[in-house]
Structure formats: structure tokens, C-alpha cells
Amino acid sequence: MAEPFILGALERGRSVEQFLGPAGSPERLGIHWVELQPVRGTYEVYLHAALDCEPLSGDLDSLPPLFDSDEEDFGLLLATTNDPLAALDAAETQTGAVRNRWVNQSMAGDEYRDYVVASRPAKAPDGHPWPTSQP
């Protein structure tokens, strides 16, 4: 998504997200993604990590958490801002997210599916390495 569309979605109360590729260890394979979520006039940045497991699901929220947690909802709150551009900047700075890879809410699951179908490539579709930030 182009930046004006990202900011517009956030200002309309819609989350945006980005699939960040592999996470975890060789013993416990996982994936991670970052989400920008508008919450009551603020913008929260969450880093999520889930098991990379079968059956393949495009619904990232339905995947089991990568790290053991007693919480039903998982995700690491990285930042809260009053400005959507500041949230976007914080997400990119703290997770390695790339400006032109943001997608609408729930579309990162399609990117995960593409990642699995492509045999979990070492590089993102744009040829750049996946970010290495993990919770």
C-alpha cells in the first residue's frame, strides 16, 4: 500500500499489517508480523509471533503462539502514539518493516500462504532479506 492509503486506513479505524517472514529457531519454526492498530484516538504497534505449522491457514490470528503464554491474545506492544505516521515509523524502526510492504488487515495471511507455497524462501518477494526482529 502507498503511504496515503496506509494513513487513510488507520485514520478510518482500520488496522494495517505486514508479514515479516520467519521467526523462532530451527527447533521451533515460526513466523512473525507487525500490526498497526487504531485504538481510541491512538495508534498501537504490535509484533506478533506464531508457529509455522500445518494445516496451512491464511488467518494468522488462528495460529498458535510461537512462545508459551497464558494469555489468550498474543502480541507484544511495541509503541503507542497519537499520530499514525509516528506509529508507522515506530513499527518500521523497531521491526524492520518496509514502507511499501504494508497491507490491509487480514491480508498478511495471504502473504504467509504465498511464503509457504514458495517453500519458505530466505528472501522476501522484493528480493530483500526478511527482517530479523523478534519478540
Structure report:
By secondary structure, the protein is of the alpha+beta class. Helix content is 23%, strand content 30%. It contains three helices and five strands. The chain has helices at residues 3-11, 84-95, 108-117; strands spanning 16-25, 28-39, 42-51, 76-81, 103-104. It has a five-stranded antiparallel sheet with strand order 4-3-2-1-5. A hairpin with a 2-residue loop joins strand 1 and strand 2 (28-39).
Span of the ends, CA to CA: 25 Å
| Helix share bin | 10-25%
Multimeric state? single chain
Q: Average the pLDDT over all residues and give the rounded result.
A: 89
Instruction: Specify Rg, calculated over alpha carbons.
Output: 14 Å
Count of alpha/pi helices: 3
**Structural category:** alpha+beta
What topology, given as strand order, has the largest sheet? 4-3-2-1-5
The counted number of beta strands is 5
Write the element-wise H/E pattern from the N-terminal end onward: HEEEEHEH
Largest sheet: 5 strands, antiparallel
The rough form would be described as globular
Q: What proportion strand?
A: 25-35%
Ranges with pLDDT <50 over ≥5 residues?
Answer: none
